[in-house]
Design brief:
eight-stranded mixed beta sheet, four-stranded antiparallel beta sheet, globular, 9 helices, 315 residues
């Protein structure tokens, strides 16, 4: 098979065979790395991709979050606009909320329309609504029924190309890598975002120590659901080709990149009862602390295995 990079048109520089390990089917899928832009991508998008998103898929399990506690409300207030005084500061140290902090840094108002693409069961939209962002809504191609909260639909089944309207923020929280047509998705994001708005992606990246160390055992490769594992260069090129300009990248990885990959390296699927959990820890506390310490260091070096990228419409 002769592959061509679907991001930049470049040729492959390396080929890899990876196993499905979330559910442990161990089906094999081919991936290649583009020699030009560095994007790691699946050889062929499976025609039966939907079967890899069962009803028990973690982001689709029904159930909305409980109302946030006063501590979480104070933390969110401090993260958003530094309100809440000393107690708010203390709560944000105890229960940080980086997602709300990001909205505050971008100047997103609570009345601004927000679209969460690939919202799963709508939990994130619900949390935003609980904190006062009443114009937030979500879509997900795999959602069976609309999700209602407070007398309105906050999440519904839809594909990105079918959405109309204008949003101050269009965001993808670990959903962009699941979309087969990356150029179409970026074009739609540009179409939907206001000229004074932002597109925000949180995605895994192959520009990471975790990919270098673990290769196809890297937990965030997640074949075949993760179709594209972008490099920092490939995501910038993709945006520029579709009317958006990259303004910031912030690594936000954590220790999961290590303990999840170590579990896969040992041949244990994510959903296996033998896997790591609070009730059944595979790793000592000191190891888990070290994983988190390494993750913070890699984030500071722009070598974490995921990042948050923000784009604005190109002038």
């Amino acid at each position: 098979m002769t592959q061509t990079c679907r991001i930049c048109g470049g040729a492959p520089k390396s080929h890899h065979v990876a196993r499905e390990m979330m559910y442990g089917s161990r089906e094999k899928f081919g991936y290649f790395v583009c020699a030009d832009c560095g994007c790691l991508q699946i050889d062929e998008v499976p025609a039966d991709l939907a079967r890899h998103y069962p009803k028990a898929y973690y982001s689709l399990v029904s159930g909305l979050p409980k109302a946030p506690s006063w501590k979480r409300r104070l933390s969110a207030a401090w993260e958003y606009d530094r309100s809440g005084g000393l107690l708010g500061w203390a709560m944000h140290k105890l229960k940080p909320n980086p997602e709300i902090r990001a909205l505050g840094e971008l100047g997103i108002l609570k009345a601004d329309p927000i679209l969460d693409v690939g919202c799963g069961n709508g939990a994130r939209v619900a949390r935003l609504s609980q904190l006062g962002f009443k114009a937030a809504e979500g879509i997900d191609a795999h959602l069976d029924e609309p999700v209602e909260m407070g007398g309105r639909v906050i999440a519904r089944r839809a594909t990105l190309d079918a959405v109309d309207g204008k949003y101050r923020l269009v965001m993808f929280h670990h959903s962009f890598e699941h979309l087969p047509d990356q150029h179409a998705a970026m074009r739609d994001a540009r179409r939907l975002v206001r000229d004074d708005g932002f597109v925000m992606l949180r995605i895994p990246t192959c520009d990471s120590a975790a990919w270098d160390i673990y290769g196809t055992d890297w937990v965030q490769l997640d074949p075949p659901r993760h179709l594209y594992l972008h490099s920092r260069d490939s995501i910038r090129r993709l945006a520029e080709a579709n009317g958006l300009r990259l303004v910031s990248i912030e690594d936000d990885s954590d220790g999961f990149q290590f303990w999840g990959s170590e579990q896969y390296k040992r041949g244990i699927p994510a959903n296996d009862k033998r896997g790591h959990s609070k009730k059944n820890p595979m790793f000592k506390l000191a190891e888990l602390v070290e994983f988190e310490t390494r993750a913070r260091k890699l984030n500071a070096e722009s070598r974490g295995d995921q990042f948050r990228a923000v784009f604005v419409p190109a002038v």
